Amino acid sequence: MKNMVVSVLFIILGMLLVWVVFEPKLGPYFIQLTQTRVGLTQDLQPQEQSGADYVGSRKCKECHRKKYDEWKHSMHSRMIQDVKRDPSVVVADFSKLPPDADFRLDEVVYTIGSKFKQRYMIPAVIDGKDDFRLGNYQWNVQTGKWQSFKPWKYWYHDAYPHDNRRFPTSNTCDGCHFTGYMATGKRVEPAIACENCHGPGSRHSKNPESAIYRATMSDPVRADEVCLQCHMRNRDKRLEKDPDIKSLWMQAKDYPAGYMPGKPLIAYKMAAPFVPGTETKEFWPNGAAKKNRTQGNEYVRDAMYQHGITCMNCHEPHKLTNTAKKRKGNEVCMKCHAFNSVIGPHQPSLSEHTHHKPDSKGSLCVECHMPKTGRHTGKSPLTVRSHMFRFVSPAETKANGMPPETNACFACHREKGLDGLQADLAKWGEIQWVSQEKISRYILQKGE
Question: Where are the domains of the chain?
Answer without folding.
Answer: 40-217
